[in-house]
Design goal:
- The structure is a single chain.
- The protein folds into two domains: about 5-235, C8orf32 fold (Roll), CATH 3.10.620; about 250-335, Immunoglobulin-like (Sandwich).
- About 35% of the residues lie in helices and about 30% in strands.
- The protein contains eleven helices and 19 strands.
- α2 (about 30-35) crosses α4, α3 crosses α7 (about 120-135) and α5 packs antiparallel against α6.
- The relative contact order is 0.10.
């Protein structure tokens, strides 16, 4: 009976919708300032680095925050290496020997570049967060899986392409993505710019699942049998700013949608922080011209944002949600009679 009770408590803790709001009573300014003070530290003595980052912090969540923040503001995303790795893995996907040899080679390359130049790809970010956390006696795991951005070709997304972390704090598991939190990539030059995004720290699992799908589905941290790899591939595109504005993306459920003229489509989201209705806009692009429009029937109630839109003419439309001037999400609508 005791064993059963223990297992039940573990399942409840594991599947809880753990997120940053669990720590509203914590001020992370001290942890962040310590991470900034240690900005010039290297990676040649990790126990000493962890000691400096965590010595004067009182809770595990603050200690993890200092570690996570340090990684995000110090480690550069080597996007060229990421592209090269993806290209080789696609090339060797049907040749297990060549794929194994490549994986051994790239692993060595990743950690050599990380140690020497403080540059890496997602695997290196996730490894470093886990290693530093474990040295601080914080349970942290590397999660392998699939990540989707606006540039991801889902037709070729047939093997894991991303890594992130799950961390155990106060008996509950939380998700974070240090790679995407660290900065942005110039889509033309592939140059990296440090630009920390706090939205990827202890993120709501429901929002995280829109563009993260783990190999082991238990790391969704959701008890949702309707969430499958297929629904992940069909999901809308969400952007980094979505993680600062939304706790949950509810509807539309899919990136590609079909409607009839004048049929209403409902958009629904749960917000992290209050906004006003005049902050919400849509960009509607019909392939010839794009225009900024105010949605219909905008309501904000109990942190839930809902509104509607109709297309009066047939055609194919790209639709983008803006909150203020921040791009949040994208959809397509095929309107036909």
């Amino acid at each position: 009976m005791k064993v059963f009770r223990f297992l039940l408590l573990f399942i409840i803790a594991f599947q809880s919708n753990a997120q940053i709001s669990d720590f509203n009573n914590i001020d992370f300014k001290k942890a962040d300032s310590i991470a900034l003070e240690c900005k010039d530290e290297g990676l040649y003595n990790l126990p000493e680095l962890v000691h400096k980052l965590t010595l004067n912090l009182d809770t595990d969540v603050e200690r993890f925050r200092a570690i996570y923040m340090w990684v995000c503001i110090n480690i550069e995303n080597d996007y060229t290496l990421f592209l090269k790795n993806n290209k080789r893995r696609q090339k060797y996907q049907n040749d297990s020997t060549k794929l194994t040899n490549w994986n051994i080679h790239i692993r060595r390359k990743i950690f050599k570049t990380l140690l020497k130049d403080k540059k890496t790809i997602c695997t290196g970010y996730a490894y470093l967060v886990k290693k530093l956390s474990n040295l601080a006696n914080i349970n942290c795991e590397i999660i392998q899986g699939y990540g989707r951005t606006s540039s991801t070709n889902i037709d070729k997304l047939n093997a894991p392409n991303h890594s992130w972390n799950a961390v155990e704090l106060n008996g509950k598991w939380y998700l974070c993505d240090p790679t995407w939190a660290s900065g942005i990539i110039n889509p033309e030059t592939y140059a990296f710019k440090f630009e920390y995004n706090d939205g990827y720290f202890l993120t709501s699992p429901k929002l995280f699942a829109v563009n993260h799908f783990p190999e082991n589905e238990k790391w969704l941290l959701l008890n949702n049998p309707n969430l499958t790899f297929k629904t992940f591939l069909e999901a809308p595109i969400i952007y980094g700013k979505a993680y600062n504005a939304l706790a949950i993306h509810d509807t539309p459920k899919k990136l590609h949608n079909a409607l009839r003229p004048n049929e209403k489509v409902t958009f629904k989201y749960q917000l992290i922080k209050p906004i006003t209705t005049n902050q919400v806009h849509l960009i509607v692009d019909n392939g010839f011209v794009d225009r900024k429009v105010e949605p219909n029937a905008v309501q904000i109630k109990d942190d839930t944002l809902t509104f509607e839109h109709q297309f009066s003419s047939t055609g194919f439309y790209d639709v983008h949600l803006l909150i203020d001037d921040n791009l949040i999400s994208s959809y397509t609508f095929k309107v036909k009679r």
